[in-house]
């Protein structure tokens, strides 16, 4: 059907669709006020695109503060998965899209480059099969990140067969205070803009005739045009009223009046029900609507049927409905004079079983808009629940917004303090420490008003936990101690903080407030960090698990389960493996983004500890896909996890690239990882600079500092430092060094004790300690640490003058997971896996024996392939292929069944593919000897590349291998050294 008054605009879109189908796409923005016909226009373009074979994907923005981030793109990606063929979807990497597909929900900040790239890449991948048209409606309601993603996609798909079409209300966006105005400007600069204006009087008459089924008088047309401005939606609504017999004077100048009159034609019950539905939102569930309206569900169904017949609502399936046009809902909602009472009624109606039908964020919206019609405690309960839900989804900024709203609404000092503590915690995760400090400062002021010292104690503990420097929290901690315990002794803040947390917890145990008890137990846990306290923390964690299961607090249960394996690792207890499995199972069962993210992180840490580096890297990448990269507070943790993954593999070039990122981040002691990395590559001078900057003010870094200082003392032969470190390590024999809440595992304490004892000449003790370290690492399945302990144990045995059992040579060329241990001439290095190292390993394993390059390139290849010369297909084989192809041609010609013919045709195509694979240019018979030349070049290149890299790490070994390894069609190691492989 032709669009009245839109010939030129439709032609512009038609040309853009044709260009996308035949050449390349672009960006088209359709602008105009509400009801001007934007949706109708792009719907026609979408139909045309489908006719020319394009894949059309659509998404609409939603006018609600509770709309999830990237909502229009969520719809696009879900539609892509539904509509793409199997072949098309196989060309898409679905991993990074998991959050948009609803498989790993998480919120994103506007700077989410990996997500932008993933969505764009998916569209481009599918466009290689057929043109893709993406339609995004109502961009004036978009979240900023969705517009940035649109800009990114437009910039990076310009030369692909991808057409992006967006609609928006320009009269709203162009307002000076509209938040999206700055984001629309760059889009407009690269878009073809179609601006829709009102219809002319002639076109208004034509539309009225089409709508009402009869020709209007010229005077009536002129009046309608004057009153509506030619807005097609207004015109259609007016024409319907006119067709229903309303006098012309009853036609309103705006859509709200037009809609009110249209709604007045419905039974009163339908109008009242739709007004109630408008309070629920653009979409609503029939049962929720029935409860809110205090009507039986069957009665609501009948009334909704009438509304659907009037084209005011649309059924979405599953008992859900939406308004046909948002102007319908806006008009109904705008007519209310008791908005707050209506929202309060929604909250009361949803008490009970129906609460699951509405997201926590929606309940919070109703609670906020209910104002004083809802008690402050009830409103705060719902808003805080939404904040916690957002936090579990890693939507930290959304969570902080809810907490701010709850803090404004909270009544009573104790409630304000409780909300402020949660808000401050979330602000630190949002990397907003200044605001967090202001919130905590306010909470401290409120707590001073109370005679009960416990709330002030919890505020002081929160400030102490997040303080970048102890000095900032010291005064508050001393004040809290004086209030809760008595005059504070002359002791460090960490000692006072621990005493405060113990007193606060004991007081909470005497009450029936599980939230207060959990807060106290966490405070004790966080003030008991550091080496040597794992047993106490394990008992605290077990109590936290009991409390969380009693209260149904899954967040506390989740994190307590995680910290339990951390404590077990510190104790050197192999049962940590079972605990990790339990933690992962719990995370999967709970299914929230933050929990799945934490599970991926924890599994990555364990994989590094056990030497499964490829798996660890994949798990860390999974955490990024789950939203970690968009979690501002995760940045420091991610940088350390990346560092800890690269370090044991000897990937120093990547560590060098990571170092500036660590320096530029909020990593509080960047010299610590820099110094350890320097020691691992043998650079004692650089490490010395960092070890002299010894900053151990933060207890969660203390075990890592001990490792650094012990490692430096061993590398530098610093006896004075070795003696000091030994004194600190000795009380913790049998334990493991674990830092940063479990993010860093630095091996057995006995390993580092053995190294400092070597420096001090205590060789017998060093042998015993390194033997204990090796056994502990083997029990803990920590292969890299077991290998390191074995290496240093041999060093200790030699220092003591004891022959190393089974030692035939100092030469070693061994692979341990993703890392190789290379020893030659008394020097040992660890380097990451490479194909060149594998080639050399084979040659060193057969000294003096030539090995075909083809065998190194493809060990599974048949002997004839390695020697070369024979044809891939002999004459007999080619003759059999020809006979079968002739049979297939005959059977296809005689096939009477289409399915049978298709199957035969597939077999014929497969045979032809096999023949092509066995033939060279112009059908020349391909010989297996051709593979030998390719193998010679490839193996020679990768061995040379490996030796170039060894020049930097182990020049002596590199020189030896250059002299003794020859490459070519066959390769051989001719040296006299015997390597332990």
Structure, explained:
- β7 and β8 form a beta hairpin.
- This protein is 62% helix and 8% strand.
- It starts with 6 loop residues before the first helix and ends in an 8-residue tail after the last strand.
- About 2% of the residues have low confidence.
- It has 47 helices and 16 strands.
- With 981 residues, the chain is of the alpha/beta class.
Short structural description:
The protein is α/β, with parallel strands linked by helices. Helix content is 62%, strand content 8%.
How is the topology of this model organized?
Layout: H1 7-22, E1 26-31, H2 38-51, E2 55-60, H3 71-83, H4 86-90, H5 113-127, E3 132-137, H6 144-156, E4 162-168, H7 170-173, H8 181-190, E5 192-195, H9 201-212, H10 218-228, H11 232-243, H12 255-264, H13 268-280, E6 283-285, H14 286-293, H15 297-309, E7 313-317, E8 320-323, H16 326-334, H17 339-349, H18 360-369, H19 376-392, H20 396-409, H21 413-429, H22 433-448, H23 454-466, H24 470-484, H25 493-509, H26 514-526, H27 534-551, H28 554-570, H29 576-590, H30 593-609, H31 613-625, H32 635-646, H33 652-664, H34 671-680, H35 684-691, H36 702-716, H37 719-729, E9 736-739, E10 744-748, H38 749-759, H39 763-779, H40 783-800, E11 812-816, E12 819-824, E13 827-832, H41 835-845, E14 851-852, H42 853-857, H43 863-867, H44 875-894, H45 898-917, H46 929-953, H47 955-964, E15 965-966, E16 970-973
Parallel strand pairs: 1-4, 1-5, 2-3, 3-4
Antiparallel strand pairs: 6-8, 7-8, 9-10, 11-12, 12-13, 14-16, 15-16
Helix pairs in contact: 1-2, 5-6, 6-8, 9-10, 9-11, 11-12, 12-16, 13-15, 13-16, 14-15, 17-18, 18-19, 19-20, 20-21, 21-22, 21-23, 22-23, 23-24, 23-25, 23-26, 24-25, 25-26, 26-27, 27-28, 28-29, 29-30, 30-31, 31-32, 32-33, 34-35, 34-36, 35-36, 36-37, 36-38, 37-38, 38-39, 38-40, 39-40, 41-46, 44-45, ...
